[in-house]
Amino acid sequence: MGTKLIIDTDPGVDDAFAIALAATSAEVELLGVTTVFGNVPLARTTANARRLLQLCGRSDVPVAAGAARPLVYQATRRLGGVHGSDGLSGRADTLPEATRPLEDSDAVSLLVSLLDAADEPVAIAPIGPLTNIAALLAAHPGIRSKISRIVLMGGGVARGNTTAVAEFNIWADPEAARRVITEDEVPCVMVPLDLTHQCAVDDVWLGKLGGSGPLGRTLETLTSDYRAHYRRVLGYDGMVLHDAVAVAEAIRPGLLHTETYPVTVDTSAGPARGMTLVDRRAVPLEAAGREVEVAVDTDVDELRNFVLSRLAGGR
């Protein structure tokens, strides 16, 4: 097998595409999926993840539920909404029932057991709030050597989406994000909004996906509420693949072009809460956070074709 991978997720339409991308890529050994609150509450993100794996024929992959709330402060307003009431445009219950039981252990325990059992370092792709990953690194510091890198979808260099400056996954638990991005030692790739928006797909791309076969057709049916939101954001019928862009990089390192910058996370109670501060000065005058690989560019056509070919059945 190729890349050993664990996904931490809060499905979510773009999470659904990301899970399916990993599940259908022959060079990926998908060791497990852990769930976190985010686009919808934890019970629903967990059910969605299990159903999505069943859809992909991957009942071999264990799923464990993790954090139901942020590390420190509860959100002051409702999370999510862009993905519909159930996270999948109201279509979650049309997916097949999962045959594999939910793991008895919690997400952190599953992460530890999978990492301990691995015979080589494992990539982790957190594509929701970083609560589970922060808890893992805080409680099990010795596990760092078993993680090859963390490829996370989150943050923004010059924009936000939940607020003017904060991206949703970071805003949902800034303290956890600061712990993972700014304060730890595990190699980290941050895939921000600035890049994921460049990789948006249109109705033609989605039509090709829908016409590709059973998996592609089902994934396309999950996008209606999400696309309605992005029609307003993008100005055309399409959507942003956010989480699938990060998982694509986890599967094929180097698919995204990265540059190394000091990054920190604003955990204040003010209007910048959840902002990722990426220090792009040529010569920073003072320490401005840990140096992190920030994805800044990609061959957009190659990225779109890579995702489409896997979801359409090309392996």
From TrEMBL:
Pfam hit, one: IU_nuc_hydro
Q: What's any GO biological process attached to this entry?
A: purine nucleoside catabolic process
Q: What terms describe the molecular function in GO for this protein?
A: purine nucleosidase activity
Swiss-Prot/TrEMBL keywords: Glycosidase, Hydrolase
| InterPro entries in UniProt | Inosine/uridine_hydrolase_dom, IUNH, Ribo_hydro-like
Pull one GO CC term from this UniProt entry: cytosol
The membrane-spanning stretches of this chain are none
All copies of domain Inosine/uridine-preferring nucleoside hydrolase, residue ranges: 5-303
This one is known as: Nucleoside hydrolase
UniProt source species:
Amycolatopsis panacis
